[in-house]
Sequence to fold (183 residues):
Amino acid sequence: MNDPLAQNENNETKTGVYYRDADYAGFFRRIVIAMIDLFVIYLGMVILNICWSVFVPSSSLPSSSLLTWLVVAYLYLAILKRTSVRTLGYILTGVEIVNLKGERPSWATMSFRFIILALVPLHLIVDILWLTREQEKQTLRDKIAGTYVIRKNAQPVGEGVQIVVIYHLLGFALSLRELKRDV
Fold:
């Protein structure tokens, strides 16, 4: 393996794990997760607005309500989703998020994954369409961040070498890490 991106600083080849095709969260499950989690975020914002109006009745809502929404969404979609608690959408659909090694993703990975979602609003459409063509059912955001959404307690069925694949999308060349399955 001569790919320098597939090796770590000790010049060892990076590997990862993969799961049964049925263990990856597919299109409809991901739509249900999104609907549940967006509802929870919306409900959280309504509760925050009610509390704001009760405790600070003489003022209107702060002009930073977009920032407040982003903070609430970040805490819920990045921080809570990374923990063993998970979001309500993940709990009700029985999934969890893992990195290419099958481990809980880092805070930085989850933050990066959230930033992709928050900064590129039309990305959600491309994200969902990308999901439909992937064997591992990764959204584009998952592929960029190096994460999988799998059934809770799914066990890896194999190990593969991490390789870098170049994707061309909307005029961009993306170098994305994926696993070459040992099939």
Observations:
- Residues 17 and 159 are 4 Å apart (CA to CA).
